[in-house]
Structure formats: structure tokens, C-alpha cells
Amino acid sequence: MNKTELVAAVAAKTGLTKKGTEETLNAFVEVVEAELKKKDGKVQLIGFGTFEVKSRKARTGRNPQKPGETIKIPASKAPVFRAGKAFKDAVNKKK
């Protein structure tokens, strides 16, 4: 499912317009991004999951174009999502 399909599905489920639904979805993404940029930023939606930032240490790796050559991979931050228990249970529930 891509963004357009998600907007259409949510609009159909809520009775809102597609334009209003897309604006809401965009606002949600912007708020999550802004919160994760803060120090110790985290967005927790009980029953769904948690968005947070994990730090990755600098390390050495292999150059995929020249496998014998090593390269330095700098430290970075990565956004992660951890699914909540209710969400995991819903996904794993058998029909």
C-alpha cells in the first residue's frame, strides 16, 4: 500500500475528504519528524507502537564495489519503530 492508497482507505473509513485526510497524514508525519529531531525524542502510541531514534556507532565495512577494500562508516542516527503488543497480536491473529 502506498501513500495514495492509504489516504483513500482512511478517507473511506472515516468519511473525510481525501484532501483532508492527506493533510492530516502529512501533519502526523511532520509532528513525528519534529519530535524525533529533539534530544531523547520519542512518540509512543499505546497499542500501536513507538517511534524513536537509535544511535549507530562508527564502524568499518566492506566496499560493495571493491570487496577487498575496507571503508569507514561514520556514526549516525536512525529512526526506528517498535510495534506494540496489541498491534503485534492483531497482525499475528489467525482469521
Number of strands: 5
Query: What is the global morphology?
Result: elongated
Q: Mean of residue pLDDT?
A: 93
Helix residue percentage: 40-55%
Under the CATH scheme, which architecture of the largest domain would be assigned? Answer: Irregular
The biggest beta sheet is recorded as: 3 strands, antiparallel
Helix/strand-derived category reads: alpha+beta
> Structurally, how many domains make up the residues?
2
Which CATH class of the largest domain? Few Secondary Structures
Helical segment count: 3
Describe what you observe in this structure.
- There is one protein chain.
- The protein has 3 helices and 5 strands, in the order ααβββββα.
- By secondary structure, it is α+β, with helices and mostly antiparallel strands.
- Strands 1-2-5 form a 3-stranded antiparallel sheet. The chain has a two-stranded antiparallel sheet with strand order 3-4.
- 2% of the residues are buried.
- The model has no long low-confidence stretch (mean pLDDT 93).
